[in-house]
C-alpha cells in the first residue's frame, strides 16, 4: 500500500508505506543498542556474575568460571553504517572442556510497562524482530534468546557467523506468544540473552524455536564455545528489537536522549573519572551530619540504592574557607522517590549546623572513587 503526499510543486507522488513506518520514534525496545553510553567505564576485567558493563547490558555466568572475558567499549564498528562504538568480548582465560552447568550470557532487561503494545498472552500477540551487527573470529552457531521472566517462558533462535573477523548483520524474527501476558509494571518482564558459551545442561535437548515453558536443555542447542581459546573475540553493536516481522534501519537517537534513557536506571553523583570538580551541594544539618539533597536529571525506575567506594581523603566538603575529608560513609536519607534523593555523612563530619558548602573529588590519583545511584532491573 502507498500513501500520497504533495511535493513542493504541488504534484502528487506515492510514498511507500514502509518509509513512513520506519520513521516511528522509539521503535527500538533495546536501550543503548549502539553501545554509545558507558557510565561505569569502558573496560571491565574479572567481571562477575550479574555485573553491569556498558549501560543496560549485564553479564551472566554460571559454573566454575575458569573461562573469563575482558568486556570493553570499542571503536571497531561496521564500515559505513553510522555506528561509533561496539561492545567487545576478549577471552583472557580459556576453557576447552566446559562443565555441564557452565554458561556465559550478555543480556539486557526490559520493563513490562514498556512492552504492553506487543499484546503478549493474547490472540493478537505481535511478532518481534531483532537485528544486530556481529563480528568474531569464532565462526559457527550462536543463540539469541527471548526470556519472559513473568511467566518463565522462552524462545531461542540461532544465527551463524560465516566469515571470520568480518562484520555481519543478523536478523531474526520471533512469533508472538499467545500464552502469558507481561506484567504492566516497572519490573523486568523480558530478557534478551546473547549466549556466548554453554555446557551440556543447556544443549542436550531440542532448541526451543517456538515459545515454551523454560527447559534449560532446550535453550542453547548448537552454541559454540567462545571461551575455548584466548585468541577469541566477539563484537556486537546496533542491537534493535522491534514489533513486526521486518527489521527496519537502526534507530539512532540523539546522545542526550539515549543518555537520559540510561539515567533512568543508573546515575553517578560522583563518577570514577571525576577529578577536582564540584559534585554536590550540601549543608551541616547538625554539627555531625552533612546532608546533600540532590534533584536527579530524570525520574529513575524506582527508589535507588547507593553504591560507593571512596579512597581516603578522595572527597572533601568545602565550607567556610576550610574542608572536611570524607570517606565511604554516605547513607541515603530514605531512598527518595526516584526523582529526588538526599544522602548524608555523619561519620566524618565535624562542623557547625547551618554551614553550607560543596562536595568535590579532590585528588586525581583517586580516580576509582565513586558514588552511584542504582535502580537497575
Largest beta sheet: what is the strand line-up?
4-5-8-13-10-11-14
pLDDT under 50 segments (min length 5)? 1-23
CATH top level of the largest domain is Mainly Beta
Question: What's the story with the biggest beta sheet?
Answer: 7 strands, antiparallel
Please give the radius of gyration in angstroms. 24 Å
> Quick one: overall form?
globular
How far is it from the N-terminal to the C-terminal residue, by CA? Answer: 40 Å
> What is the total domain count?
2
Instruction: Provide a count of the helices.
Output: 2
Mean pLDDT metric: 91
Structure summarized in a few sentences:
This protein has 377 residues and is mostly beta strands. Helices cover 4% and strands 42% of the residues.
Mind explaining what this structure looks like?
- It is built from two helices and 25 strands.
- The strands form five sheets. Strands 4-5-8-13-10-11-14 form a seven-stranded antiparallel β-sheet, with no helix packed on it. A seven-stranded antiparallel β-sheet has the order 21-20-24-17-18-23-22, with no helix packed on it.
- 35% of the residues are buried.
- The protein has 377 residues and is mainly beta.
- The chain has two domains: 25-263, Jelly Rolls (Sandwich); 266-374, no CATH class.
Secondary structure elements and pairings:
Blueprint: E1 2-6, E2 12-16, H1 17-21, E3 43-44, E4 51-52, E5 58-62, E6 68-74, E7 86-93, E8 103-111, E9 128-136, E10 140-148, E11 153-161, E12 168-174, E13 188-198, E14 212-213, E15 233-243, H2 255-263, E16 266-270, E17 278-286, E18 289-295, E19 305-309, E20 315-319, E21 322-326, E22 330-332, E23 340-345, E24 356-361, E25 370-374
Antiparallel strand pairs: 1-2, 3-6, 4-5, 5-8, 6-7, 7-15, 8-13, 9-12, 9-15, 10-11, 10-13, 11-14, 16-25, 17-18, 17-24, 18-23, 19-25, 20-21, 20-24, 22-23
